[in-house]
Amino acid sequence: MRSEIIRLIDESREVIYKIAFYSQPEVQEVLERVSRRWEESGYQGRPIDYANVEELEMLYKIARRIVSYSPEELWSIYGREYLPTA
After folding, report:
1. pLDDT for 79
2. Average of pLDDT values for 79-86?
3. Structural domains of the chain, count
4. Which residues contact 45 (CB under 8 A, 6 or more apart)?
5. Torsion of CA 58, 64, 66, 72, to 10 degrees
6. How far is CA 19 from CA 42, 45, 60, 61, 64, in A?
7. 35-79, pLDDT tens digit by residue?
8. Is residue 81's pLDDT more than 70?
9. Which helix (DSSP H) or strand (DSSP E) does residue 17 occupy?
10. Model's pTM, two decimal places?
11. What is the pLDDT of residue 84?
């Protein structure tokens, strides 16, 4: 699941997938927890390596939901916050 989450979100060329994924409150909460564990381990590996099975399942479910939308749909939802206005 870790590698699939990375492939779907972090390795995607679509920036909006990253914006949509990382702006989810559930994702932010998990990242706070795994970042603490990663820090406590002396920054060995990657933060996602410290996610437990439940956290990975949640992140994977959210990632799959995000990429089920087209980039255009996501820009219409999230873009107002990230696109400069004229």
Report:
1. 79
2. 62
3. 1
4. 38
5. 180
6. 28, 24, 16, 16, 14
7. 999 999 999 999 999 999 999 999 999 999 999 999 999 999 887
8. no
9. helix 15-22
10. 0.88
11. 54
Task: Return the structure tokens found at 4.
Answer: 């699939």
Closest CA to 62 of 34, 12, 15, 25: 25
* Helix ranges (DSSP H) in 1-86: 2-5, 15-22, 25-40, 53-67, 71-82
Full domain range(s) for residue 71 = 2-82
Per-residue tokens: 21: 């994924």
Helix (H, G, I), strand (E, B) or coil at 14: coil
Residue 78 pLDDT: 87
Residues 14-46: b if buried by 16+ CB within 10 A, e if exposed: eebbebbbeebeebeebbeebeeebeeeeeeee
Q: Which amino acid belongs to residue 60? A: Y
The two structure tokens encoding residue 14:
């679509």
Amino acid identity of residue 52, one-letter, is: N
